[in-house]
Amino acid sequence: MKTTPSTRIITAVGAVALSMIGLSACSGGASGSESGGSESMGESSSASSAPMESPSASGGGADADLVGSGCAAYAKQVPSGSGSVDGMAEDPVAVAASHNPMLTTLTKAVSGKLNKDVDLVDTLNGGDFTVIAPTDDAFKKIPKKDVEALAKDKDALTKVLTYHVIPGKLSPEQIAGEHKTVEGDKVKVSGSGEKLMFNKSKLVCGGVKTANATVYMVDTVMMPGKM
Questions:
Q1: What pLDDT, on the 0 to 100 scale, is given for residue 145?
Q2: Which part of the chain is the FAS1 domain (predicted)?
């Protein structure tokens, strides 16, 4: 059977995801269910230490629902400006992610800079979503040649990116459970507190609010069918 770039990528990334120890797991959450809202985006549907502030301590601001052992390091790296917690809350998700220095590779992938035929910016900014956002360090776990091959495959790249998007905004209290992604397959969110995981990908910092989405930054790129 002929091996395609897509099958080689999925096999390679799956092996990486299964073998990684990654960052410390984090976040809390009660049991959740599939979110509402549109389930289609069309063919082309973007640190570690103690958590920042608890909801009770933060007074309900943009950082009120933050969870994750990487949140304090994220806040230290981006204390103010468009890429900060408060700054991201002001913009729709694709714009907000473009200002975050931890999400530069994902931003390129969803904005047509890896493949001109895969531009999801308008769609991501046009609805309510939960975005599981692999950090730049997550993409670095994938061999460069496999990333380059994925970038050339429009369908494979679209599937991988839309697998990281769940319709509807899920808070840390709602995120645990199995959720159908825009790609069509389900992602399993398990654990609680410091042990929250998205499939086998560990949380860096989650509950980050944007104008239309809730973002969970993770340490490993997930692949459809690898739940």
A1: 94
A2: 90-222
